[in-house]
Amino acid sequence: MITEYATLTIKPGSEADFETAAAQAAPFFQKAPGALSMRIERTIETPNEYTLIVQWETLEHHIVGFRESAQFQQWRELAGPHFAAPPQVKHTQHTYLGF
Known about the structure:
Largest sheet: 4 strands, antiparallel
Mean pLDDT: 97
Number of strands: 4
Strand content: 25-35%
Shape: globular
Order of helices and strands: EHEEHHE
Distance between the termini: 19 Å
């Protein structure tokens, strides 16, 4: 399992519209093969910064399966107009759980 972290910088003043768009787009992630969970968190110190966190079975499920799909295009059509900058994406793999 891998975790995708995408830092999303949203145009100031369109945070509420972005949150609505993200909620509307959640089913696109839920229906994607290999998607295990999806959530979005808002940064307290920087209110127009969000982190999209998606757990995928494999990296290929995200990079190939989702990014090349119609669902990805629909996500970007809903959320993209609110982006102030391109998303910064990284992938991690769990290595240790302390407690």
